[in-house]
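Lab notebook: predicted structure, single chain.

Context: the supervisor wants predicted structures on file for every construct in the current expression panel, including those that have not yet been purified. This is the next one on the list. No modifications to the sequence; it matches the entry in the shared construct table.
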Amino acid sequence: MNASKKTIALVGATSVMVTALAACSSGANADSSSTGSASLTQVSVWDPYPQYDDSSDWATYVKACAPAGTTLKRTTAPTSDLLNTLTSAVKEDNAPDVVILDNPAVPDAASSGLLAPASDVGIDTTGFDANLAGPGTVDGVTYGVPIGANTLGLYYNKDILDNAGVDPASITSWDTLNAALEKVTKAGNKGITFAGVAGEEGVFQFLPWFWGSGANLKAPGSDEAVAAGQLVSDWIGKGYAPKSALTDNQSASWDLFLTGQYAFAENGSWFAKAASEQKFKAVMMPIPGKDNGAAPVPTGGEFVLAPVHKKDTSAHYAAAAKIIACLAGPDNQIKTDDQLGYFAANKDQRTQQIASDPIWTPWAQAIESAQGRTTDLGADYTATSAAISTALQGALNAAGDTSAVKSAFAQAAQG
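Prediction complete. Output recorded below exactly as produced.
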């Protein structure tokens, strides 16, 4: 999502940042022809990780991917700002050589003519897991590759569950999860944290419950979708979840879990290392579906892509191919993803990564079975996500009111 943790670090970019994005140039000779004979002296990468400033390890890592004979300028802002500014930059033929976008933004960017097909650029698209690479293909054309992947799980505080007499192995459905929530709250603890904030981040966290009910993104107002909305709405109404879930992002909900007062936290694999370092024992388990079994979870993470260039096309694309290979090539995936706290998007690479650190072991099955958010809808996902976000906000505000939850999702179905 990330939905994803990257865009939660800052509320938004300043106008200065957006201006800097628009002005960013890849440094080609102004007199060069469109044949690609130009020699670039500066290349540029835009990424959605504003939490990593220019002095960060990530910034140093990216700059080291500059092709021989060039320097690399990195510019960063949240995905929404990158996508908006990229539209103007492509129109003015002043786009970066490489842009890194959250995976749900890829169909929008591709459908708007902002991205060059991977085959035109020379990007190696082989070897990535199909479920993780899926969002990079739009209408049969592949545009980029995943820089890595993350997903969601259900963390629990083992100390709280033990004290309340809850066996985590018994939690295999919504009913058993609700029973556990009732037990831990009756024992004097708090229940569950999750991010219900408006926008894609909240939808990302809602999708396991939405899909786990049997709902389909093509029918956001279905009875199954209403059931998922009722589940999380009831958590607010019964006091199992904090009212702040309505506005909590993933970072804020994680901070609540770290107080040691909550039994459960729905959150991302990127917090696995932090979970292993807590004074209490924090353990990950799969998110349960409505009935017995694990719920489908969405893939988070970004794609590495080459924007369209009209002038010096071959030079820009050649540089992009080298930078993308440096960031997402088979020899570099683990190094890159360790920088970001992600999983490699290639199973063989990921197997090595998981074997190197046992904190990743519980996540292996979740990431391999995760679903792309845009796989079924493509560019139409954006509008559907917005409708689900509005419905989710209505459901959480309803705090268990059944008629209000139904009404919220009925409105989502209308548009």
